[in-house]
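Holo model, uridine-5'-diphosphate-xylopyranose. Inputs:
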Amino acid sequence: MTFEKHILCIGAGYVGGPTMAMIAFKCPRYKVTVVDINPGRIAEWNSDHLPIYEPGLDEIVRATRGKNLFFSTDIEKGIRESEIIFVSVNTPTKTFGAGAGMAADLQYWDKTARQIRTYATSNKIIVEKSTLPVKTAQAMKRILTSEANGIRFDVLSNPEFLAEGTAVRDLEKPDRVLIGSTQTPNGLRARDVLVEIYANWVSKDRIITSNIWSSELSKLVANAFLAQRVSSINSISALCEKADADIEEVARAVGMDSRVGGRFLNASVGFGGSCFKKDILNLVYLCRYYDLKEVADYWEGVVKINDYQKDRFLLKILDALFNTLADKRICLFGFAFKADTGDTRESPAIFVARQLIEEKARVVITDPKALKNAMKDMEGVAGDIAYVEDPYVACEGCTAIAVMTEWRTYAALDYERIYRTMAKPAFIFDGRNILDHRKLFEIGFNVFPIGKPSLTHF
Ligand code: UDX
Ligand code: ADP
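Output:
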């Protein structure tokens, strides 16, 4: 079969894999290849056990793989054969040198640009998918065109707004698709090619275009705004706990103002995930670079409140358990940074688990999808840590349960049964406010929600 277009994606991660699967699914006339330097990852994409858990993903991969969706380690061939190359390699926060802890580490991305330049033998459209600091597209263009080999590269910015756990739905029905390009005739032509790809399933009024830097910046700002909502409600949760107000009642009242909106106002133990913190720190770094100290401090506050919220949660456990956790078994319900994903990057559970171990507690971790990642995250931490799949078994003999992830299954457990097997007095710290607190209290638990008065028997 001859395909109408050959699309390549470099980087088979949380963004590249699902995004390309959706393009292949919606556009059978295109051949979509996903490459990665990690052969293990590619082997998993080619197996029955995909490297990431995402509802609905198995189905679309199964429908397309081997037909018009291919996973491979042959990066050179992939580059040569494609007209359009998406780049979705990882861009973590730098851990070394200038800007460590703030700026994005661009080494993977830089290597990718050089690989494309080395292997390309025809004109290419390069699409930035990874979240990148503003003006990266320009740097990419400079690397690509630094050897005058007669090949034209047009670089576009097309940030990904999908959220984990709902990736397939977000890709299928996006709020918007954003494409940034240079405003030159070549830039606009490249932009239109990408618009047409998305137009296969997204209505044109949802495909918006902009200049390239607005597009890059929009991604950082979108995540900063979302994270800010979580930090805003979390900051008020601290006040509610002191003032005997209820954060859910406050959130409902505030969110019913249509100018504010009710979504993303769930108080929690803190936000996690690979994007929020990284993108805000990137924004802060950019502002500092441009000498905008007040702006940088403002956004840094979002991350500080998040750290404060995680600290507060831990201190609440310590305080409630009579200021010593030594030798007490504490069960973490969930380790993923949110429900419906196995991803644990920046999960508040990592911080809480480590702090509990510091306090010499014995930690039992349970999670329906993230135990493998939890083990990796806790590698090298010396202490008593157990990983147990069954939540009933996990909390046997424990003094406390701390809900870290809002998995729906945790709300449906038989807490009378759980109570019987736990050490007494028994405690529940609901870091996601998903449980029936009054009922738990009546069973005998001492209950500590987020942003609501605690219910204790003392
Ligand atoms: C986010 C953005 O939503 C997405 O658009 C972007 O492409 C990538 O970053 P993601 O990190 O997958 O997506 O998850 P998201 O649903 O945004 O949640 C982020 C964190 O905030 C999670 O830890 C979640 O539990 C927490 N959160 C979210 C809250 O604590 N309360 C809320 O009300 C909403
Ligand atoms: P994201 O959440 O942004 O998708 P991931 O870490 O899940 O990030 O995925 C990024 C992928 O990019 C990883 O599988 C990594 O092996 C891959 N990668 C990094 N550098 C290169 C490169 N030069 N060529 C191909 N793949 C790369």
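The mean pLDDT is 95. The first helix runs from residue 16 to 26.
Archived with the compound record.
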